[in-house]
Amino acid sequence: MSGPLRPPRLAPGGTVGVAALSGPVRPEALAAGVARLEGLGYRVRVARNATAREPLLGLAGSDEERLAGYEELLRDEEVTAIVLARGGYGIGRLLPRLDPALVAARPVIHCGFSDATALHAFLLTRCGLASVHGPMVAAELAGELDPLTARYFPAALEGTAPRVLEVPGADVVVPGAARGRLVGGCLSLLSALVGAPEEFDYRGAILLLEEVAEEAYRVDRMLGTLARAGRFDKLAGILVGSMDRITFGGAEDPERLRALLAARFAPLGVPVALGLPFGHTLPNVALPIGATATWDGTARTLLFEEDAVW
């Protein structure tokens, strides 16, 4: 299988588009995130629907408005990277209407996480395009980034990020090394995509998983959906990021959660590690979705053999 198409890297002083494809965006958070991007030297174009709010689900505009705002950024020849404003819910509603030909005609960098998991899957599966699982404008970029997150963003968009992510505190559940294409993201989105045309191809991949604010039985049910669908059968490895506010009857229990994950993953016979720095809790390191990487469970390092850009 050939590697994915990698969009051109973001040049210093380049133009970043801000797309609002999911939940409503707080104007003050959006302004703070835009100011952060401008402070990094970029020009910023914000989708015209960014501060809209539709009445039915409270999303950042109707499906038509969110799609139109995104497509305007795609067609803007000065925009070379699109960073999502925030996650939440909404991208899944747009997947049937996204045009792979339009995206592939002028490939640009896409960066985001959470609800953006569905967009990453669409970009890789339907467009053959690598992307970046990383910070968003009205979320992490609206506040202070921790040093590790700042080391990889915006460097991952400029093609200058460190090649090795050292994770000395990773909890190695199943030892070993794994090499494969990075796929995945937010567990609830991956579960919702089972059987969809945009679903990731998990064969030979290193699966990234993270989740936030769920009861443990729902986490187990989502993992069960993926397992029953055969999505874990041919993985090269599994790396789990933050699992913040996962509760058992409303109370967090990290040891019990670890036991749950180990029970699901250990029988697969592939390397598994928990506690990697990505997801809904900082640090949220920018990771190249679609790129080949190698996990070393002994050294606790993730080597990026490719960037998400060229």
Q: Can you tell me about this structure?
A:
The protein has ten helices and 16 strands. With 310 residues, the chain is α/β, with parallel strands linked by helices. The protein has two domains: 15-158, Murein tetrapeptidase LD-carboxypeptidase, N-terminal domain (Rossmann fold, 3-Layer(aba) Sandwich); 164-304, Glucose Oxidase, domain 1, CATH 3.50.30.60. The protein has an eight-stranded mixed beta sheet. A six-stranded mixed beta sheet has the order 2-1-3-4-5-14, with helices on both faces.
CATH superfamily of the largest domain: Murein tetrapeptidase LD-carboxypeptidase, N-terminal domain
Tell me the series of helices and strands, N- to C-terminal. Answer: EHEHEHHEHEHHEEEHEHEEEHEEEE
What is the CATH first-level class name of the largest domain?
Alpha Beta
* CATH topology descriptor of the largest domain: Rossmann fold
Q: How much of the polypeptide forms β-strand, as a percent range?
A: 15-25%
Low-confidence segments = none
Please outline the major beta sheet: 8 strands, mixed
Question: What's the count of strands?
Answer: 16
* Percent helix: 25-40%
Large-scale geometry: globular
| Structural class by sheet pairing and helices | alpha/beta
| Number of domains as seen in the coordinates | 2
Major sheet strand order = 6-16-15-8-9-10-13-7
Indicate the mean pLDDT: 98
Query: What is the helix tally?
Result: 10
